[in-house]
Structure formats: structure tokens, C-alpha cells
Specification:
Layout (H helix, E strand, L loop, with lengths): L13 H35 L3 E6 L2 E6 L4 E7 L13 E8 L4 E7 L5 E2 L5 E8 L5 E12 L2 E5 L5 E7 L1 E4 L6 E6 L2 E6 L4 E7 L1 E4 L8 E4 L5 E4 L5 E7 L1 E7 L2 E6 L2 E6 L4 E3 L5 E5 L7 E5 L2 E5 L5 E7 L1 E6 L2 E6 L2 E6 L4 E7 L1 E5 L4 E5 L5 E4 L5 E11 L4 E6 L2 E5 L5 E2 L1 H4 L6 E5 L2 E5 L5 E7 L1 E2 L8 E5 L2 E5 L5 E7 L9 E2 L2 E3 L7 E3 L2
Parallel strand pairs: 1-47
Antiparallel strand pairs: 1-2, 2-3, 4-5, 5-6, 7-8, 8-9, 9-10, 11-12, 12-13, 13-14, 15-16, 16-17, 17-18, 19-20, 20-21, 21-22, 23-24, 24-25, 25-26, 27-28, 28-29, 29-30, 31-32, 32-33, 33-34, 34-35, 35-36, 36-37, 38-39, 39-40, 41-42, 42-43, 43-44, 45-46, 46-47
Length: 506
């Protein structure tokens, strides 16, 4: 809080002094009143700050807030898009002509007012991950005016003028947008800043982040690599460039054959393989290669240190490979010594946690540390590398561990929750952080609170929901046996198609 100016009492006419003091008091009181009003408004904004979600009811689409209250009536034939769940910008498609593919768009706010009306079209920018799941850029919109496209942020500020013939996302890379102008392609970031000028025939991703650079194609059809500052990394003279790279080496294709080249274009390796699938972290270890549909390891000298005899090979960490033989997965080192027995249906290495999750045929998992010890087993329900915990269903018990495999209390894992599921005599209820029973043990199954504060409750084969105080907001009447995830916002339940991310009422 800033301090007011300090006044010394003047030794003058007392009436004037009293008048001044009274005036000052009035001013100070006014300041505090105004401040109180502003603080109240600020607190109210904070309290009423909501997330938004799409809902589907009676074959129409609408929007609800995080309390389950309807914000936009389900009245739209096409699914409403919410680019950022914390912003009240809702994109509606209407007057669709399915024969010509033409349609109209508009943006609404939480007051059902149309916004950004100066544009002919307003659209979210869709992207997808490596598993083809669709998501949307959450802080930028594509707009059209006079037949050309530009960008605005969610506050409506123009960040790129409407001068492009097309704008799309660079697949799998966040906040990296391909723009087309006069037949040439460039890259903008989500703030409208030019990363690559519009001077290329095509641009694709090199790595998992735009900072790792781009594969570019020039007008003559040849490919090269440029970095984030548009500086040449690899000369544009190749028929094709894959996004397999490492140790300043790249996999290119010339005359129909893959070649491993150095940054200066020098050929490092050009024979002994049908395909290069990975460049290993340690340069001395070389590459993983494929020959006659089997995998092996080869040094850059051409020496095969592991013959091509595996059904799959993938580097987990330096010197260790996830391998597959006879349909089963394990882990080997570069001398082919088994570190994890080849008996699993899949193995995933989590780098930040530095551990392996090895799945068995019965869908349970062994959690294996970096010394290859099986430290825990069970059904993996969550592994959060950012928060540093593993959640396992072990028998009928849900247990939580940190990455040192120390048991953690559920209140430490979900520290912002007000209720925690608890089990007693075969029935579920909820307790508070101190273990006091808030919801009696009367349910056959329950879920933990979600980010909206709601938890699922199951009784007699049907699901319902409670709020963050344990009040029933939806009696258990929903049959959700075919649903992959139990998740409620008030009386609304998450739909079957998780990729579409919508809620409905059954």
C-alpha cells in the first residue's frame, strides 16, 4: 500500500488549521472509500473469475461456466470453439452450406454480445499433437477482412494486419504460425512477430520447439534448414530432410537414398542401412538404423555395434535402448546386455523422473528406477513430472509416491482440494484435509475433486456429483459405463469423445 503525504501542523490561524484538517480528513476518507470500492470490485472479479466449457444438449451447442450455469444457450448447430477456457471469447459457426463448404462465423462474450464485428470471419487456429489430437492456439485468433487474413489477440488487439492469403499453425508446435503472402510462406509467433520472412515454398518443423529451427523448401524444390533467426544451418540443396537430427548431424535424402550429413554438408554415413531412425545422444555411439525391417546400432564409421536383429530399438537415455524382441519389450545397453527383462507389452522412459513404466499384459505396470529395480507395481493412474508424483491403484487402494518412491499423502498431491476421497468398510466418502468426514461412506465409487471443485459419486451403478463442500448437485442417475472418464461440472458430465472436450446432461 502506498503511503499518503505527511503534513506538519502549521502554527497559524487555528480556524484555518481546523478547516485544513477537516478537508484533509474528508479527502482521506474519500480515498479510503474509493479504495474500498475498487478493492471490492477487484475481489469480486477474482471471486467471479470463471473457466468456460462447451456443452451439448438436444443436439445443439452452447457454453457453461465453471459453476455449471449456462452462459450461451445451446442453440447452435455447429460446435462452439473456446480457444482459451479462461477467456470469455466464444467462436460460433452458423449458416453452413454443406454443399459449397461456405459458412459464417461470429465471436460472442459471456454477455452473449457479439464482439470483433469489424471482421468478416473470426476463427480459432487449430493444431494437433503427434497422436493427431486436435487443440487450439489459446491466445490468438485468425481474422479475415476484405478477403485477406490477419491476427488478433483475445482482447481484440490487431497483432498482424489482414494482408495474408492464409494462416495456419505449424503442426505440433505451439505459438508458431505459417503465413502465406503472394504465394510465399513465412512464420509469425503468437504476438505477430516475424520469425521467418515470407520467402519460402514451404516450411515444416525440425524439432519439438520452434527454437530448434525449421526445415525450409525453396522454389526449386530443394530443402535446407534455417534457425530461429533465419540463419542457414544446412544449405538448401537436398531432395528431402527428415526431422531426425543431433550432434550437428542431419538425415537427408539424395537420389532416393538417406544420407547422414554434418552441419557443413559433409557426408558422414551413406551405406550399410535402409533407413536411419535415430541419432544417439552420444556422438561416439552413432545411430540407430533399420535394415531388412530389423533394427541395430551403427557407429558413424559404418561399424555395426549391434546387428540389425531387433523388432524395435529406441534410445531411452545415453547408452540405454528400449528394445523389442519376440513381441516383448525390455531395455538393453550398447553391449546388448539386458537391463530390464524383455517381458513387457510396452516400456516408456520418463526423462524428468528418470524412471521406466513397464506395462504387463494384465495392464498393470512395474515402475522401475534408474538402477533397474522394480520399486512399485500396480495400475498407473497418473504420472506428473511437473509435480513430481506417481499415482497407482494397488489392489483396492489408491497410493501416491514421489520419484524417490516415498509414500505421499493425498493432501500433499492435491493441495488445493477441499475434499479427499476416502474408503471405509468397502464404501467411499470424503474427508477434509484434517481427516474429518464431510461426506458419509455411502458410495460404491467416487472420483477426486477436479479443477472445478466437483467430484463424481457412484451408487447402485449410477453416477452423480458433489460440489467442493460435499453438497449433492447431481443425484446418481447417470449410466456412464461406456465413458472413458468420469468428470462433472455441476450437473453436466464430460462427453464420450474426449478429443472434442464437451459436457452434456444425460
Amino acid at each position: 500500500m502506498s503511503r499518503g503525504r505527511r503534513y506538519e501542523e502549521p502554527k497559524l490561524n487555528l480556524k484555518k488549521v481546523f478547516a485544513v484538517i477537516i478537508a484533509i480528513v474528508v479527502i482521506i476518507m474519500s480515498i479510503f472509500v474509493i479504495k474500498g470500492i475498487l478493492t471490492k470490485d477487484k475481489e469480486q472479479v477474482k471471486i467471479t473469475s470463471k473457466d468456460y466449457a462447451v456443452v451439448f444438449q438436444n443436439n445443439k451447442w452452447g457454453v457453461i461456466d465453471s459453476t455449471g450455469a449456462i452462459v450461451i444457450d445451446p442453440a447452435y448447430q455447429e460446435m462452439i470453439i473456446i480457444p482459451n477456457s479462461k477467456n470469455d471469447v466464444f467462436l460460433c459457426i452458423y449458416d453452413v452450406n454443406y454443399e459449397t463448404g461456405e459458412y459464417k462465423t461470429k465471436a460472442l462474450n459471456s454477455k452473449n454480445e457479439e464482439i470483433f464485428t469489424q471482421y468478416n470471419q473470426i476463427e480459432a487456429i487449430s493444431n494437433k499433437d503427434k497422436d493427431n489430437n486436435i487443440w487450439y492456439e489459446d491466445n490468438v485468433l485468425k481474422v479475415q477482412k476484405d478477403g485477406k487474413y490477419g491476427l488478433i489477440n483475445l482482447a481484440g488487439k490487431e497483432i498482424a494486419p489482414c494482408e495474408y492469403t492464409d494462416i495456419t499453425a505449424l503442426e505440433e508446435i505451439k505459438n508458431t504460425l505459417k503465413v502465406t503472402k503472394e504465394g510465399q510462406i513465412g512464420i509469425l509467433d503468437n504476438e505477430g512477430k516475424t520469425i521467418l520472412p515470407t520467402q519460402y515454398k514451404n516450411i515444416t518443423k525440425l524439432g519439438q520447439d520452434s527454437k530448434e529451427g525449421f526445415i525450409i523448401q525453396k522454389e526449386d524444390g530443394k530443402y535446407g534448414i534455417v534457425d530461429y533467426s533465419n540463419q542457414v544451418v544446412l544449405e538448401a540443396k537436398y531432395d528431402e530432410i527428415t526431422n531426425i537430427y543431433g550432434n550437428d548431424m542431419y538425415v537427408v535424402k539424395q537420389n532416393g537414398k538417406q544420407v547422414l550429413v554434418a552441419k557443413d554438408g559433409t557426408e558422414v554415413l551413406n551405406s550399410g542401412f535402409d533407413e536411419i531412425t535415430q541419432i544417439l545422444k552420444n556422438k561416439e555411439n552413432g545411430i540407430i538404423f533399420k535394415k531388412d525391417n530389423k533394427y541395430g546400432v551403427m557407429k558413424t564409421t559404418g561399424e555395426a555395434t549391434i546387428p540389425a536383429e531387433y523388432e524395435e530399438l529406441k534410445e531411452a537415455k545415453s547408452g540405454l535402448l528400449i528394445s523389442k524382441q519376440n513381441g516383448k519389450y525390455g531395455v538393453i545397453d550398447l553391449q546388448k546386455a539386458n537391463k530390464i527383462e524383455q517381458k513387457y507389452t510396452s516400456i516408456t522412459y520418463y526423462e524428468k523422473a528418470d524412471l521406466y513404466v513397464a506395462e504387463k499384459e494384465d495392464y498393470t505396470c512395474d515402475i522401475i528406477d534408474n538402477s533397474f529395480n522394480v520399486c512399485q507395481s500396480g495400475i498407473l493412474t497418473d504420472l506428473n513430472e511437473e509435480k513430481g508424483y506417481i499415482a497407482l491403484k494397488q489392489g483396492k487402494q489408491d497410493n501416491y509416491y514421489n520419484f524417490k518412491f516415498e509414500n505421499k499423502n493425498i493432501t500433499e498431491i492435491y493441495s488445493s482440494n477441499t475434499l479427499f476421497k476416502s474408503k471405509n468398510n468397502g464404501k467411499y466418502g470424503f474427508v477434509d484435509k484434517n481427516g474429518n468426514v464431510v461426506v458419509d461412506y455411502i458410495y460404491d465409487d467416487v472420483t477426486e475433486q477436479n479443477s472445478y471443485g466437483y467430484a463424481g459419486i457412484k451408487k447402485d451403478g449410477k453416477w452423480g456429483a458433489i460440489d467442493n463442500k460435499g453438497n449433492v448437485v447431481q443425484e446418481p442417475t447417470y449410466n456412464l459405463e461406456d465413458y472413458l472418464q468420469i468428470d462433472f461440472i455441476g450437473r453436466w458430465h464430460l462427453g464420450k469423445d474426449l478429443n472434442m472436450n464437451y459436457y452434456n446432461q444425460l
